[in-house]
Amino acid sequence: MTTFYIKHITKYSYSNPVIDGATLIRLHPINDGYQQVISHFISVTNNSLVETYDDFYGNKIGTFLITEPHDELSIISDVEVNITGRLFPDDSKDIKTQWAELNLRKYDADVIDFLKPAPFSGFEEVLNLIQSKKLNEKTPYKVALELCEYVYSNFKYIQGVTNVDSTLNEVWDLKAGVCQDFTNVLLQMVRMSGIPARYVSGYICPSDNITRGEGATHAWIEAYIPFYGWLGIDPTNNAIANENHVRLAVGRNYEDCSPVKGVFKRKVESDLFVKVEISTTKHKEDIEVPPNTFTGSNSNNSYQRNLERIQQQQQQQ
């Protein structure tokens, strides 16, 4: 078991005061048998009350309102979490038995939403790949790992060539991107193989074996393996997600897992500051949050666009 201390700061600075800000956050780590949240504190501008509820996929959602005028919005999340390593799936059962089990489970409520792939320009190419590799003659576990390795080997990890508006078609044609892009591609490929797969957002923590995405928000998939359950697979690092992956939310796609989104009144320009620090020691220096030094980088009367910039900035570190 490993304990991590995670501090995640998101700050918006506005050119003029805004009012009636309503915000939804997915910054509460999942709490289960493999991930125990020891403590979690969220503080927001004006000490606003954060109310929580569980969504359809079991994610803990926070919401808050700031009705009075404000020219900045800070969201600070402090987490202490214990991560327990998982045993890998026992892949000894007969191949036909495993696929039959998946077929029986495909209409169950916990997997049905994670089976349908999205159409994209590489659809036929992926189908041909699945057929040429004879993936239907392998166990679901081996299929998921082989597709993960394919994405890792055939897509280049390059920051800045994509953004959150990049379509799956563009990423497939570029064969390049960052963790969100790798995850979106693998998500479709695994589903096309007949294996339920869901999107995961979270953090990846320092490790000798992990080289991409440390110290920032991260994304990977979970594939449903028969007689085992959900297995995290990280195509950005060609690794099984284990004790160095901290989960925030799961869903059908990024939209189900986005960390922050909301709206406010008044048309303003805005700047964004994001910082994530992860440590295995409790006593660490505080992250310095800059004052409102608006420089005029964006204009919008909603910070949905800023939400997307958050994900882009964090996942391209």
Explain how this protein is built:
- The chain has 317 residues and is an alpha+beta fold.
- The protein has 2 domains: 2-83 and 258-315, Immunoglobulin-like, CATH 2.60.40.2250; 95-256, C8orf32 fold, CATH 3.10.620.30.
- Helix content is 22%, strand content 37%.
- The chain has 6 helices and 15 strands.
- Strands 1, 2, 3, 4, 5, 13, 14 and 15 form an 8-stranded antiparallel sheet that branches. A 5-stranded antiparallel sheet has the order 11-10-9-8-12. The protein has a two-stranded parallel ribbon with strand order 6-7.
- Helix 3 packs antiparallel against helix 5.
- Residues 299-317 have low confidence and may be disordered.
